[in-house]
Write a structure and sequence with these properties.
Structural class: alpha/beta
Helix content: 10-25%
Strand content: 15-25%
Radius of gyration: 22 Å
Number of strands: 16
Low-confidence stretches: 275-281
Distance between the termini: 44 Å
Number of helices: 8
């Protein structure tokens, strides 16, 4: 739980900390987004966020690197670090600061700084963002809030429990191009500039075209496959493994392959695709099923990982300063 540092008023009852959602790497423009976090949970963003902003060319490569940015990607924030992220519906006891409620077309985007004030003492305590092209979220200022005693946090779930309860499935999967773009950056860095031979199946559907454009096939290619809990460990050099949604820790293979992190919800979608596991194993259609039943969903066009999420991720990795990777970063695909 968090309260106002000025008067002690309770601002949220959220008690369960989760890993910082990977979907922060990008958004879909001109689209109203759902809340980034589930009700009752919160995450902490260690990197600075919010105004004032400065351009990469203005601060220089050295200062940018000290702030965790190793290639130009938008403006650098000189706002506070360790902001607390919450679902907007979990915040109460606040009012909107109307003179800071600017936005683009569907809501407010926080461009003017903190826009929520405590009802008890009128101290600015956070920023609400719910405009189009923004994940709906409230960011509490670390210096304006304090931790309060509250119920115990939700226990850390084991992988078997996460899979059995369906906790890895969530509505953000329609934005799967964003974690795919993050994973693409992680794979390219893990391969160290070598070509990547992608295992046939869902991994090829997800990353095959993009990897073929970024690191064309050649000799000494590294084999990329999928591995994880209840799924197994195929023979490969690189394996995409899930990141625990609560702790942010990667599942670790025992085969010696190099693990590459992948958003757990997207990993579950690849490892146990619902529209495939429900099909009959043998024979034709089950009795009573008509021929005009809907077919498994397929896109009208080839899947494409998010370019912005790809560049966002690389810009925050020191490896992007290596000439071969900087060339990929600048060229894109």
């Amino acid at each position: 739980m968090f309260g106002c540092a000025g008067c002690g008023a309770v601002l949220t009852a959220a008690v369960s900390e989760v890993a910082l959602p990977i979907h922060l790497a990008d958004t879909h423009w001109e689209k109203l987004h759902p809340p980034l976090l589930e009700a009752g949970s919160y995450a902490v963003q260690r990197a600075p966020f919010g105004p004032p902003w400065r351009q990469f060319t203005e601060v220089g490569a050295h200062e940018a690197a000290e702030r965790g940015r190793f290639a130009p990607f938008g403006a650098l924030s000189y706002g506070p670090s360790d902001t607390v992220l919450l679902a907007p519906g979990d915040v109460h006891g606040t009012r909107v600061i109307l003179e800071r409620a600017a936005g683009y077309c569907m809501g407010i985007d926080g461009r003017d700084g903190p826009n929520l004030a405590c009802l008890g003492c009128d101290l600015p305590v956070g920023t609400r963002m719910d405009d189009c092209g923004c994940w709906q979220v409230v960011r509490l200022l670390p210096q304006a809030v304090v931790r309060l005693p509250g119920p115990p946090e939700r226990p850390i779930m084991e992988w078997a429990e996460l899979l059995a309860t369906g906790a890895l499935w969530h509505r953000l999967s329609e934005y799967r191009d964003i974690p795919a773009g993050v994973a693409l950056a992680e794979v390219v860095v893990a391969a160290g500039g070598a070509p990547v031979d992608v295992a046939p199946g869902p991994v090829t559907e997800l990353l095959g075209r993009a990897l073929g454009a970024l690191v064309p096939a050649g000799e000494d290619a590294k084999r990329l496959s999928l591995a994880g809990p209840e799924f197994g460990e195929p023979t490969a050099d690189l394996v995409l493994v899930p990141v625990h949604p609560q702790t942010g820790e990667m599942w670790q293979p025992r085969s010696g392959a190099l693990p590459v992190p992948l958003d757990a919800a997207l990993w579950a979608e690849l490892a146990f695709p619902p529209h495939r596991t429900r099909l009959p194993v043998v024979g034709g259609l089950p009795a009573g099923v008509e021929r005009d039943d809907p077919l498994p969903p397929h896109s009208w066009y080839p899947f494409r990982p998010s370019t912005e999420a790809f560049r966002y991720t690389l810009s925050r990795m020191p490896a992007v300063r290596e000439p071969w990777l900087r060339a990929i970063y600048d060229q894109g695909w």
